[in-house]
Every structure is written in structure tokens, then in C-alpha cells.
Amino acid sequence: xxxxxxxxxxxxxxxxxxxxxxxxxxxxxxxxxxxxxxxxxxxxxxxxxxxxxxxxxxxxxxxxxxxxxxxxxxxxxxxxxxxxxxxxxxxxxxxxxxxxxxxxxxxxxxxxxxxxxxxxxxxxxxxxxxxxxxxxxxxxxxxxxxxxxxxxxxxxxxxxxxxxxxxxxxxxxxxxxxxxxxxxxxxxxxxxxxxxxxxxxxxxxxxxxxxxxxxxxxxxxxxxxxxxxxxxxxxxxxxxxxxxxxxxxxxxxxxxxxxxxxxxxxxxxxxxxxxxxxxxxxxxxxxxxxxxxxxxxxxxxxxxxxxxxxxxxxxxxxxxxxxxxxxxxxxxxxxxxxxxxxxxxxxxxxxxxxxxxxxxxxxxxxxxxxxxxxxxxxxxxxxxxx
Length: 386
Hints:
Blueprint: H1 9-12, H2 20-31, E1 37-38, H3 50-61, H4 74-86, E2 97-100, H5 103-114, E3 120-125, H6 129-137, E4 141-146, H7 158-164, E5 169-175, H8 187-200, E6 203-207, E7 233-238, E8 251-254, H9 257-269, H10 276-288, H11 290-313, E9 326-330, H12 335-346, E10 348-349, E11 351-352, E12 361-365, H13 370-382
Parallel strand pairs: 1-10, 3-4, 3-5, 5-6, 6-7
Antiparallel strand pairs: 2-8, 7-8, 9-12, 11-12
Helix pairs in contact: 2-12, 3-10, 4-10, 5-6, 5-9, 11-13
């Protein structure tokens, strides 16, 4: 008699990734020798800057390969605090920081620390798919606000947000610049968020993982800099996107000491700490690689502009992102079927919008060369998918 586990309710609340079908189709075609233009990737197509890699090597050679203090090495926490102060977040000291193995782990710890069974979490759609999963794993219920009618701008959607949140809301997640939409929310929009958070007494996660990747002189504002938000904002960031360190797994969050104390329990009893020598590389990233960040950002901006022009040539208007490295392309209502057709008929891999809460769109990443981006658009056009 074989063993059949009785799975926990919390894991069964979470749906399998809706992008798996697309990934599987792409993998099957590649196994057959087909050339698939992969525009589904969520990571930079650049190598980690050399000074960061050298710092990691030097740290290993110096013997920094054991456990560290659970919340992070002092030099990295100090460098993070310096960056936060430069961003206007002067309320944070090293006692307000937890360094985590990846930004996703930081988010998971915050959700697990703040959300209890039945607590309401509000998401601004389109929202990164893991926000929903993390809320459900923590036992939370979801309220959602769709910004697609406003080309993913939050300010015109503030009335909808005001109608959605209430005294029952425990947490709102704000991601600016955002995945998948690339929007950078205005000060007026964030002040509207502030007013609602204070009125209804809820916390806000400010996910700033794409903060260094902006265009057209857009200046993302850290929510925690606004009056009234200093002690109700959890500021989250990481090294994957701006520093091309996705596989290194390094992130952090900054929060009031009471949250840090409670979240620290989860960190110490689960992942223990971020990798020692990776933390040393993180210090180097924060202190010395501004030129490399600018080179990547400039390349992303050129690609974005090219993609917008290419779609316009084919009669497709797309909301122009001000940050991150994604474009939301409007397609037919069944975006999952469109994405499957794109893989099967054009050999172009994208991500359906429905998992982000925005059906009728697909997400395309421009973390790819101009040649591949141009070829991807041409293939979609030839397959009558534009």
C-alpha cells in the first residue's frame, strides 16, 4: 500500500504557475531543435559586474564561507542603511534591517510575520504573481484593484483603491517601478496611498526591486519617505535586477524594530542567513558599480524605445513603461491561448497577463538583444498575432 500524504490546506490554496504550460511548450520545441525567441525571462541578460564577482572571490579566499549573524553582516547592513538614507529613508538604522537570500525570501518573511488567517491583502493589478501566492500561504484573503484601464497608472485608480480598502485591510503591496507593468507611480498617487493607509490603519510593502532601472528622468519615490508612512512601511529591495545578480540570491527589507524582531524568528529558524561571501559581494555592489548600472539601464531604455516603435509600425499601441524591463502587450481576451499560439506558431515565448490579474495582455521582457527582440516582433507579425 503506497503512502498518500494529506497535504496542508495552506499549500493547496496556491495554484500551480500558469506559465508552466508556456514554458513546457517552449522546452518541447527547443528539444526538437526549434529556435525559440524567449521574451518571458524575468532577469537581466547581462553578466554580474566584474567588481562584484571579484569581491565574492576575495571574500571566499579570506575564509568568509561560514554562517553569519542571521540578520546579515554588519558591513552590508551599514551599506544598505547608507543607501536608504540617500533615498530619504532616514528612519532606518542597522537594527531595522534583515538581509535575506533573495528579495523573494524577504517578501515571504514579511507576509508570514504580518498576515494571519483571514487578514485582507490588497494588490494593485497587474501584480507580480508571487504576491498572491504568498498572501494565500499566510492565510490571507485578497482584494484587488485593476489599473489596466489607466495604462497601469495608479493615480487615476485611487478612487477604486479607496472603494476597495477598508478597516479590514491589513496590508497593501506597492511595486514601483513594477513587474509586469513598468509604471513609476507619481508622488500624488503615493500620497493617496498614504492617506488611505493612515485612515484605515494598514501597513504597506514598498517593493523597490526595480528602483534603479528607470527611464525618461522618472524618479521613483520611496513610500516610507512620506509623512505618516515612516512606521507603517516595509521597504524591500534586492540585488537581482539592478546588479544582474539573480542567481546570487541576495535581498533585504527595512522595517520598524518590532517587525524585524518577529521576522527574525522566521529567518533564523528557516534559511539561517544569506550566503556569507555573497553578502560581501553585496557591499561591493552598493558601493562601487554605478557605471555598470547606468550601462545596463541605457541598454534597456534603447530596447524599450525600439520595441514601442516596432509595435507602433504594426498598429499596436502599448503603454510605455518608465521602469523595469517589461512591456505589457494588449492581445485578445484569452491571453493564455494567445501565448500558446505565439509559442507554437511563431516560436516566441511570452508570459500571459492573467496570472498577474490582467487578462487580455501578455508580458514581454526586453532583457534580450535588439536582434532577438526585432526577430520576435517580426515572427509575431508573420503569424498574424499582432
